[in-house]
Amino acid sequence: MAKSEQGQTRFPALGFGLGLRTQHYQEILDSAPPVDWFEALTENYLVPGGKPLHYLDQVRARYPVVLHGVSLSIGSSDHLNWDYLRQLKALAARIEPMWISDHLCWTGLNGRNLHDLLPLPYTEEAVIHVSDRIRAVQDFLGRRLLIENVSSYLTYTDSCMSEWEFLSAVAGRADCLILLDINNIYVSSSNHEFDPLEYLRGVPVERVQQFHIAGHRNHGDYIVDTHDEPVIDPVWRLYADACRRFGPVSTMIERDGNIPPLAQLLEELDQARRIAAGVAVPAPERAGAT
User: Fold this and answer.
1) How do beta strands 223-224 and 217-218 pair?
2) Is CB count within 10 Å lower at the N or C end of the chain?
3) Residue 7, CA distances (Å) to 81, 175, 178 in order
4) Taking the chain, what is the end-to-end CA distance rounded to the nearest angstrom?
5) Which of 242, 256, 251 is nearest to 270 (CA)?
6) Phi, psi of 153, rounded to the nearest 5 degrees
7) What is the pLDDT of residues 236-273, one digit of tens each?
8) What is the tens place of the pLDDT at every residue in 127-150?
């Protein structure tokens, strides 16, 4: 594991991966594509048995797999969903993922799931609330969690820090790692008019375990994070900037709608490889990054 001066550790980089989607199950097993790892959506595999879990087992026998959830609702004021966490722990015991991630957001209230990734106010109170809940989840699962920055379309008047300061504060207090979504940074920077490079500079290097790269839809005066379009050039450029700052980080192309043929996603993955290789920074030059 890589270790920072502060003592935090992150897992070795896995290379370049894809989201595991039902449309590609059989092709993956038949052709063994040149993918280093796959990310599986947790909620798709919590039902015991059935085809999804069968295919996940088969893919896991051939590739490293990580789990990525959308239902933890770590920022909610509801109690933690221990039924969900028990199912997650059982799934993790079955497939032995390299790590587990979810989003820095809330997804419901009073036991009702709104099926959206809703942003939090960036306050000291929220830092304490969320980080305490992450610690409880980590203690229950017996492993560190990755938290992901979400795209946002509103701000709170109570916020007293930037999004990147909030993300970094939560990760530091909870002693968890970060899944840095490059597309989400781009989307939010456009919607809220901040400098995405300042965001990258504000996140501690030693906490960043994984990158997401994805597409979105531009509606002119706002952008929506849809994950149903190819990655655009400005997001690729921001990814290059992230590679310069954070060095080798496990990188994944995330596509959730308008799923293209696997070959098209492999082309995007090759582009990520080329970009990362082209801006690789030797470790000694990054030693002082914070």
Assistant:
1) antiparallel
2) N
3) 31, 10, 16
4) 17
5) 251
6) -130, 10
7) 999 999 999 999 999 999 998 889 999 999 999 999 99
8) 999 999 999 999 999 999 999 999
